[in-house]
Design brief:
Number of strands: 36
Distance between the termini: 27 Å
Radius of gyration: 24 Å
Length: 600
């Protein structure tokens, strides 16, 4: 028996080569860039479709996933940080690779290291619009032209970011939160000299602030149409804004749930992505005859899609039962990495539970043929502005392999169920989500699915935060807690985290820790640490700028003072790891912790 054959299925899922949806160069569509873990670390790869050649473009110990291909296909830009701390500079290399013995050059000389705040590259191959964020300056956006010093064209203390650059390079769209609400952006279009062309702002004039997002300029020379996402009817939908005339064309698509879009390459139509109740589907919308035509994809989730110049659509698809693959409407599998194939898992079942704020959608997986009550893992998603979907995930599949039922809850704060559902967690941050999780927990127990003595609360990032908060707020509800890269001490986390997340926390909680101390205290896991009864396992990246290590250490010291049962695993990376062996190690440590304290 080979090593691969002897490997357990859960480990195969992590080790099997995976690829992202390829990005392609606008003026050289055979030149593509994608992410793969083929070497055991997630890195960027260049792919020349004309020749079939694939080449690993980056090679760093902790991996690289942030990269952009220039419109002419000549350059790969990638973000160079230190061990996952997200603070760094843009570098670039020729699409065909650099000369042996040389390093990738700084892409924007004159710009110091920062957190990234968006990037747009011009078709002339010489111009870039670079967004930067630092604690000292807030957000700055720079026009960087080859062989000239970068010029600041936008500056503000609040968070902002580069949206897109028009096809001819004459217009720059940015998203900003000058009004102080980091959850709802306004839009501004600038000229390259930094002067304002037009503003679009849905945050003023109504009873509630509404958000806007840049979806992209029309890919046509001289075309000033900007595709925009809006929330005017309580969910995300697209409209077309002609920046030159101010005219807005509301598409008003008759689709429930959130709707996003991108342009077809000739600008005649839109590729529509529709997300509803944890599934997604694609359509083509013709802008001339206003016709909406379904693009056939299998049931499940489309994680990304792009329309190619020949009119075909390529998309990254998966379901809870079937691993992800990059497919085409031509019927072809676009990228099929060689090597170990990932085993599938079990499908999800949809559950709707009445909660204090409305119906809660949960996704349930359990071992085939298993009868309850089962040991059950509540795997809580991060974000919080995210949602679990009918998509393949190696983590939940590993729990199912080991005999556990898995429940994932799209609590208030999750996307995909309307703006009111997403915005509901403001001010009572964390506590709102826990109310929804408690309602689904009650259903899981009373339905006979879950053994109330063997309930595990787990999650990463915001899910890790909710895990620690839940163990303290609901101490009798959970037998164990597993928190990955969590917020543990909200006040210290605020002071140590990257500037963009400080802005988000001010929005969620209504101010700084000094301005609204009672809200930070009510929402901080550290406040309730003395009530925690269950054994706690925490994993954390020592370079994490989102959930920094000092605030986790503060929480752990309180556990130590009490003599509470806990384990902590610290690793040399940021907000999670891009190294496959490290990911497997973390899952194994969690499984072993549960077995020691809960039994098989």
């Amino acid at each position: 028996m080979s090593d691969a054959e002897a490997m357990p299925d859960w480990e195969k899922r992590f080790r099997a080569p995976r690829v992202s949806l390829p990005d392609w160069a606008e003026d050289a569509p055979d030149r593509c860039l994608f992410v793969s873990n083929a070497t055991g670390t997630y890195e960027l790869y260049a792919w020349n479709r004309a020749t079939g050649e694939q080449r690993q473009a980056t090679n760093r110990p902790n991996g690289t996933t942030d990269g952009v291909l220039s419109p002419d296909g000549e350059w790969i830009w990638w973000f160079d940080d230190k061990d996952g701390d997200e603070f760094g500079v843009w570098r670039r290399q020729p699409f065909g690779g650099r000369e042996a013995g040389t390093e990738d050059e700084f892409a924007t000389p004159g710009l110091e290291a920062s957190y990234p705040a968006g990037l747009a590259l011009a078709r002339d191959g010489r111009t870039a619009v670079v967004g930067r964020s630092t604690d000292e300056e807030g957000t700055t956006i720079h026009l960087a032209v080859a062989e000239a010093p970068p010029v600041v064209i936008y500056r503000h203390r609040e968070s902002a970011g580069v949206g897109d650059l028009s096809h001819d390079g004459s217009l720059i769209a940015i998203e900003h939160t000058e009004h102080g609400d980091a959850m709802h952006s306004a839009l501004r279009v600038l000229r390259p000299d930094g002067t304002t062309v037009a503003d679009l702002d849905d945050t003023k004039g109504g009873a509630e602030e509404l958000g806007l997002e840049v979806l992209g300029f029309a890919p046509v020379e001289g075309d000033a149409r900007l595709l925009v996402g809006h929330q005017r009817r309580g969910r995300w939908e697209p409209l077309v804004w002609d920046v030159a005339t101010g005219e807005e064309t509301d598409l008003a698509l008759d689709l429930p749930g959130d709707v996003s879009a991108e342009w077809y390459p000739d600008g005649s139509g839109l590729l529509i992505a529709h997300s509803f109740e944890a599934r997604s589907e694609l359509f083509r919308y013709d802008l001339t005859d206003r016709e909406l035509v379904k693009v056939e994809t299998p049931p499940g989730s489309v994680s990304g899609a792009t329309a190619r110049p020949d009119g075909s659509v390529e998309y990254l698809w998966s379901s809870a039962a079937q691993p992800s693959s990059v497919r085409s409407t031509t019927g072809a599998v676009v990228l099929d990495p060689p090597g170990l194939k990932s085993p599938g898992s079990v499908p999800v079942e949809d559950v709707w539970v009445e909660g204090p704020g409305g119906r809660i959608h949960a996704l349930v997986q359990k071992p085939t043929g298993a009868e309850g009550p089962l040991p059950t893992v509540f795997d809580i998603h991060g974000g919080p502005t995210w949602h679990d979907s009918d998509a393949f995930a190696a983590g939940p599949a590993a729990w199912v392999d080991h005999g556990y039922a898995v429940v994932r809850v799209n609590y208030r704060g999750s996307t995909g169920y309307g703006r009111e559902w997403t915005d509901a967690l403001k001010h009572r941050v964390g506590l709102i989500e826990l109310e929804d999780i408690a309602a689904v927990r009650e259903w899981a127990v009373t339905s006979g699915l879950a053994d109330p003595e063997r309930l595990i609360l787990t999650g990463g990032s915001w899910g890790g935060y909710l895990t620690l908060l839940g163990l303290g707020v609901q101490p009798d509800a959970w037998a164990l807690g597993l928190a990955a890269v969590p917020v543990a001490d909200y006040v210290t986390a605020y002071h140590d985290e990257m500037e963009a997340l400080k802005a988000m926390d001010r929005t969620l909680l209504g101010g700084t820790p000094e301005e609204v101390p009672e809200r930070f205290e009510a929402s901080s896991p550290l406040t309730y640490v003395d009530a925690v009864k269950a054994p706690v396992y925490i994993s954390a990246g020592v370079n994490d700028p989102r959930c920094p290590i000092r605030q986790i250490d503060n929480y752990v010291k309180r556990l130590e003072t009490r003599g509470a049962v806990h384990e902590v695993y610290r690793y040399d990376a940021g907000h999670g790891s891009l190294v496959v062996d490290e990911r497997i190690k973390q899952v194994r440590l969690e499984l072993e912790f549960v077995e020691r304290h809960l039994g098989a």
